[in-house]
Design a protein that fits this description.
Length: 205
């Protein structure tokens, strides 16, 4: 397999075990780099790699060779094994959450915090007009569910109680109670942040 000077393989490759298991090395490298207060230019100078390659690698659209990955880790000042451990801090830039499907209709969801954590799960939802969890109420084996509305409106039914939330509103409730939710608008999307403590063992929706 031919190698390019920037450390990226030219040929198409089969998924590595880390790619297959959903570990995004580039995103983790970016989180560690920013935690260390380093710019891409500084890492490029220390590794001899191009800024453009490092940028593509951090967005998980370019693959680094093992040797290149080791050089990047050394430049940042981390052990390679740290990439596969649950980090003490996790930085997720806007628009860079991991897509996930937990059921529901007319919506997209992204994990923005707590991936692999046993303590909490944070989700960012983009809910189309009329979209939501579906008509059938559900419950979760978790201690608490918090939802904060970033924009638009969301109607949440918990038992017999209906809460109509608008931008800036926050609701905390027991997810063990049967509940459902829907964007009641005819034309306005809703964006919401959910925090579930601890992560449920069953899926939503």
């Amino acid at each position: 397999m031919e190698q390019r000077d920037d450390g990226m393989s030219r040929a198409t490759h089969a998924a590595t075990p880390f790619e297959a298991s959903g570990i995004h090395l580039g995103q983790r490298i970016r989180s560690f780099r920013r935690m260390k207060g380093l710019s891409i230019i500084e890492v490029a100078e220390r590794t001899g790699m191009s800024k453009s390659f490092l940028s593509r690698f951090e967005r998980d659209i370019a693959q680094a060779s093992v040797a290149s990955l080791l050089r990047i880790c050394d430049a940042i000042g981390i052990r390679p094994g740290e990439l596969f451990e649950s980090p003490e801090a996790s930085y997720v830039p806007a628009g860079c959450g991991t897509p996930i499907s937990l059921g529901g209709e007319g919506m997209r969801e992204f994990i923005v915090g707590g991936a692999g954590s046993e303590h909490l799960m944070a989700l960012y939802s983009e809910i189309e007009p009329g979209g939501g969890s579906g008509s059938e109420p559900y419950s979760l084996e978790a201690a608490a569910d918090l939802v904060h509305i970033k924009s638009g409106r969301l109607s949440i039914t918990i038992g017999e109680q209906v809460y109509l939330l608008s931008s800036g509103d926050t609701l905390t409730f027991s997810p063990r109670l049967p509940h459902s939710w829907v964007n009641p608008s005819d034309d306005e999307p809703c964006t919401a942040l959910w925090v579930i403590v601890p992560p449920p063992g069953t899926s939503r929706g």
